[in-house]
Amino acid sequence: MIKLQKKTVDAIAAGKLEKGDVLQAAALSTIQGAKRAWELIPLCHPLRLDSVKPEVTLGQDEVKIRCTVTARERTGVEMESLMAVTMGLLTVWDMVKTLEKDAAGQYPVTRITEVEVEEKRVDRGC
Amino acid sequence: MIKLQKKTVDAIAAGKLEKGDVLQAAALSTIQGAKRAWELIPLCHPLRLDSVKPEVTLGQDEVKIRCTVTARERTGVEMESLMAVTMGLLTVWDMVKTLEKDAAGQYPVTRITEVEVEEKRVDRGC
Amino acid sequence: MIKLQKKTVDAIAAGKLEKGDVLQAAALSTIQGAKRAWELIPLCHPLRLDSVKPEVTLGQDEVKIRCTVTARERTGVEMESLMAVTMGLLTVWDMVKTLEKDAAGQYPVTRITEVEVEEKRVDRGC
Amino acid sequence: MIKLQKKTVDAIAAGKLEKGDVLQAAALSTIQGAKRAWELIPLCHPLRLDSVKPEVTLGQDEVKIRCTVTARERTGVEMESLMAVTMGLLTVWDMVKTLEKDAAGQYPVTRITEVEVEEKRVDRGC
Amino acid sequence: MIKLQKKTVDAIAAGKLEKGDVLQAAALSTIQGAKRAWELIPLCHPLRLDSVKPEVTLGQDEVKIRCTVTARERTGVEMESLMAVTMGLLTVWDMVKTLEKDAAGQYPVTRITEVEVEEKRVDRGC
Amino acid sequence: MIKLQKKTVDAIAAGKLEKGDVLQAAALSTIQGAKRAWELIPLCHPLRLDSVKPEVTLGQDEVKIRCTVTARERTGVEMESLMAVTMGLLTVWDMVKTLEKDAAGQYPVTRITEVEVEEKRVDRGC
Question: Distance between CA atoms of F46 and A76, rounded to whole angstroms?
């Protein structure tokens, strides 16, 4: 998730950001993150991903991104889903920068945190 | 930072990982993350970066990555440094996957957390 | 522009597409197209783009994309803006595929057309 | 296709362009366009393409590009072929820029038009 | 340079290769190699290149590629020119594969060799 | 291989280079080279690579890189392995630049040479 100031979350919810619809931009970046994990993580190989499903939700003072990635592969896809949510969260940050910065140009509140693998499943039948 | 099991941190320190030197791989990924932020963050433009300096350190049960990015630009480089440390942390995760997974293939401990902008400086003279 | 069936344009306007907000996705792709023109057009060099402004509008039976690109460069930026609108239009196509295909899986109506450089300006003062 | 001035088409045919062989450069860009569609079209996934065959032909006052893409996939490859011909046409534009611009630096004639899916075939046997 | 069998060089000269014009394809790859050096060489940063000029020539039993790269930069551009000629030579190899392989599918003759920096010049006036 | 001055090889062996561990950086670049061959070699298609194993060794006055690439594909993977070792060698060059340059900024000794396909094997059973 990315922790934000409440005023920023309110602005996102109201659709009032100059840079556009934050939640959709984040969803699209999440998908691209999964597709391109192999390029930026040195020992990752490109995998055939069957589906990449982002869920971007607003909380009180945060944006949460969950991404479910499936593939019929011998290798797990946890790096793809981690890269996915990370790119989505960075995209959120970039789009709300102006609101989050204080008078000194610093970010007292903003941080990305709790990026984890919720669940990893293997269906051995396939 | 990325939180890890203590046994994993010990293995990194001892240089005993099959996949290679985790700290250097993370440092190289950190640099590439800064260089390529503009590709994966939709509204980022490519900037001329003067320097990208990663610092990868081991803690008790975590790896910390700090990255200092400088540029003579009108735009700040916080997204470049955020992307940098994020890619470094994801690279660490990928390289220690085997140690961090439990018997059920899950990651009970591993998570990326506290990714923030420590300090943003502007030298108006330039 | 991309010519579409009227029913597709209506669905876009109503925000009823399964794949998401077509106009914003197209705007984001337009920006990325400008940023990456140099990668896919062999003799293009990367340029420092000052601004990339997409305008995505719905017509009766088409989506129009205009993109204004500015740069303080010795070289013109027409290839960047052409690549930009092209990527936006292709993104629209991809997002409305299901609606545009007929029973035989063909595209009787859909086509990208009239991609041109509306105006190229040079301010010699810079 | 890309509409050009007749003098430009004549120069291409005579192989007299400073920037090189336009038709081959266009063919190579066409192939790369197909390979990289998934990178620039947000909801496209990388597919295994079996063959990508460009045909670049000169008309009276235009260059036409057709590209046949085949793959043994569950998904159609129309986006790959559309991206392919588009990149080929943009490459042509870039290579003939100097000839097409008028004294005011504008492009009165040049435009990309009629980009469509000629035929989409599915062989259910595979 | 890339050492080849004489019959292969003859076929290139005669323009009789199925895969197309080898020399131009190599020239285009050379240019792209220079543009993209920073992506694949970890500690390279993107530089503004003023010009990238490939020269692809046929010898008796080899193809030679020289590339002159200029930039108004504080950093040298030797990595860009080395990457450039390397990508050109690899492209040649790929295009003549069928001719170079022997009956056992091996490459008894083919090799890339003598890739060096002929001259590096710095004009301190700029 | 890349030919170097003996003093450079000694510095690599002693781990005394400012830019970091040359052998590991080269190994990581080698892997990335294999993964990305299809992007920079025009007629190469992305292949599913099963394994990419780099071996980076120091000689008296050179660094040798061998890379074994395996894939269950109809196409050979020689281009992937050639691209792999080439990127590894270029990475070595970049990391030892300061040591290899003479007082005039030239490279009297440094060159990449003898890049070849040692062996290509096909297991027809798969």
Answer: 20
**pTM of the entire predicted model:** 0.95
| Alpha-carbon gap, residue E67 to D116, rounded angstroms | 39
CB D33 within 8 A of CB D4: no
Q: Are F3 and F110 in contact (CB under 8 A)?
A: yes
In whole angstroms, how large is the CA radius of gyration of chain C?
Answer: 16
- Dihedrals φ, ψ of E77, to 5°? -115, 30
Which one of C10, C50, C61, C94 is the catalytic residue?
C94
So what's the ipTM on this one? Answer: 0.95
- Catalytic residue positions of E, numbered: 94
Dig out the tokens for B51 from the structure: 């320097």
Q: How far apart are CA B102 and CA B109, in angstroms?
A: 9
The reply to whether A42 touches chain F by the CB within 8 Å rule is yes
Q: Does E72 touch chain B (CB under 8 A)?
A: no
**D34 Cβ under 8 Å from any chain F Cβ:** no
Other residues' Cβ atoms within 10 Å of the Cβ of residue C111? 19
Cα(D83)–Cα(D80) distance, integer angstroms: 5
Q: Which residue of E has its CA nearest to B25?
A: E42
Report whether D4 contacts D59 (CB < 8 A).
no
Within 10 Å of residue E41's Cβ, how many Cβ atoms? 22
Which residue has tokens 């320190």? B13
User: How far from D8 is each of C18, C48, D5, D28, D100, CA to CA, in Å?
Assistant: 44, 29, 5, 20, 7
Query: Does residue B61 carry a catalytic annotation?
Result: no
Q: From the CB of residue D47, how many other CB atoms can be counted at a distance below 10 Å?
A: 22
- Whether the Cβ atoms of residue C62 and residue C2 lie closer than 8 Å to each other: yes
Per-residue confidence (pLDDT) for residue A77, from 0 to 100: 96
Per-residue three-class SS string for chain C:
CEECCHHHHHHHHCCCCCCCCHHHHHHHHHHHHHHHHHHHCCCCCCCCCCEEEEEEEECCCEEEEEEEEECCCCCCCHHHHHHHHHHHHHHHHHHCHHHHCCCCCCCCCCEECCECCCCCCCCCCC
Query: pLDDT digit string (tens) for F84-99?
Result: 999 999 999 999 999 9
Tell how strand F51-58 and strand F62-70 pair up. antiparallel
